[in-house]
Amino acid sequence: MRTITTNRKAFREYNILQKFEAGIVLKGNEVKSIRAGRVSLQDAYATIENGEIFILNMHISPYEKESYHTETKRKRKLLLKKKEIKRLYGKITERGLTIIPLKIYINERGIVKIEIALAKGRKIYEKREIIKEKEMKRELRGN
């Protein structure tokens, strides 16, 4: 497994409740751009529409050697089992839960996969507490 990119902001902004591995529907030049590492998950999120799950705001830069280019932030379909999508839909209808991408990677068979997570947003005071805990751990390791 080769990790292409991770969403580091997600671990800081959200409490991760559950992770899922999903396939992603891409065009040929998008796959080439992802393999080159020209993808960003910043501000990306997933939504469920008509029993299908889509990722929005995921930026894939155009592949420079192609003659045609697709839209960089288009809506892309994710491939999950229907049972998983129904479970996610039930959870996100609860207050404060969302679906965010954590990382994009290429599996052993050479297929591009995305790891998404069911997450709950953190409050500002929770973020401060986590930063304090990390600083205390760092100081203890340093001594």
Task: Summarize the structure in words.
- The chain has helices spanning 8-13, 28-35, 82-92, 124-142; strands spanning 2-6, 14-24, 39-40, 45-49, 52-56, 59-60, 76-79, 97-106, 112-121.
- The chain is an alpha+beta fold.
- The chain has a single domain (2-142), classed as Small Protein B, Chain: A.
- The longest helix is centred in the C-terminal third of the chain and has 19 residues, at 124-142.
- InterPro entries: SmpB, SsrA-bd_prot, SsrA-bd_prot_CS.
Helix-strand string: EHEHEEEEEHEEH
CATH architecture: Beta Barrel
- What integer value in Å does the Rg equal? 17 Å
Identify the strand order in the major beta sheet.
1-8-9-2-7-5-4
User: What is the name of the CATH topology?
Assistant: Small Protein B, Chain: A
Portion of residues within helices: 25-40%
Q: What's the structural domain tally?
A: 1
Low-pLDDT windows of residues: none
Quick gist of this model?
One of its GO terms (cellular component) is cytosol. The chain has 143 residues and is of the alpha+beta class.
